[in-house]
Design goal:
Helix Hairpins; HSP40/DNAj peptide-binding domain
């Protein structure tokens, strides 16, 4: 198969960038751009089920980044992908912070009419579903009240919920986040470290797979806001002091479709005045018994 013959892992080690793009060394910039688009569309991990597609996609991006830049291409044509070229990459480190923005802008302009082929959801996401954090509160109840019957109490607390304006998109109303073309919408980049391919969260989209240019002013682009929540709590008859009740799913909202956290309520039982007097009497009686017992022991000795 073509995928096996042209894109074996050894081809990346050899770093023959023209072979990766399936182009002759004499290709023009326009030919490189055109071929790059064809290969991206063919081997994007969202549309290509091959287990090697992610690695191939990374190779294609790497080859295009070099061959589409005249200065990088000139150094590559002269020196190949050697240590001298890697030294050149280190010298360009300061420019990398602006590269993703320029790359994103170029990809949007080039592929804006073809973005439909990216619509299929990626199998691998840098930001997996995450359960929301639990919330812990305390509730005070009267002793006599809880000893007589099961009661219902209303509690109020702060919790994190999905922004009601942007619905979690993090973007202003009327705007749509654009696909991150640095990672192809997966939220993951493949980078080479110590001669091995490693995955890292895309620094351009922070692992979301989408770029938000106009952030929601309500949640400030976080997708979440704080809300005052009211909940009804059923307290069973005869519950013990400091016992904790759990209300599943009433905690903070989960991220990336994750489950909500839980609400934990510690029940603090307030002592009744009559019970306090009775307790004091019992303590005083026990104290007198201890004194009498000590006297008897001394007389016996």
């Amino acid at each position: 198969m073509l995928i096996k013959s042209l894109y074996k892992y050894s081809s990346y080690n050899n770093k023959n960038l023209y072979q990766i793009l399936q182009l002759p060394k004499t290709s023009t910039i326009q030919e490189i751009k055109s071929q790059y688009y064809k290969l991206v569309k063919k081997y994007h991990p969202d549309t290509n089920p091959s287990p090697q597609s992610k690695d191939i996609f990374s190779q294609i991006q790497n080859a295009y980044d070099i061959l589409s830049d005249q200065s990088k291409r000139a150094i590559y044509d002269s020196c190949g992908y050697s240590n001298s070229y890697e030294d050149f990459q280190e010298q360009q480190q300061q420019q990398k912070s602006e590269k993703p923005k320029n790359r994103q802008q170029f990809y949007e302009e080039t592929f804006q009419d073809f973005d439909a082929f990216f619509e299929r959801k990626s199998k691998t996401r840098a930001r997996p579903a995450k359960k929301g954090e639990d919330i812990q509160i305390q509730l005070h109840v009267d002793f006599l009240e809880i000893m007589q019957q099961t009661i219902q109490k209303q509690v109020q607390f702060q919790k994190k919920v999905l922004c009601y304006i942007c619905k979690g998109t993090r973007a202003q109303t009327g705007t749509i986040p654009s696909k991150c073309y640095s990672c192809g919408g997966t939220g993951i980049l493949l980078v080479k470290e110590n001669h091995q391919m490693c995955e890292q969260i895309c620094d351009q989209c922070e692992g979301f797979g989408k770029i938000v240019k106009n952030k929601c002013k309500t949640c400030l682009g976080t997708a979440f806001i704080q809300k005052t929540q009211d909940e009804k709590i059923i307290i069973p008859k005869g519950i013990k002091d400091k016992q904790v009740l759990r209300k599943e799913g009433s905690g903070n909202t989960g991220e990336q479709g994750g489950k909500n956290g839980d609400l934990f309520i510690q029940i603090n039982i307030k002592e009744h005045p009559q019970l306090e007097i009775k307790q004091e009497q019992e303590n005083e009686g026990k104290k007198q018994e201890d004194i009498l017992k000590n006297k008897q022991e001394q007389q016996f000795q």
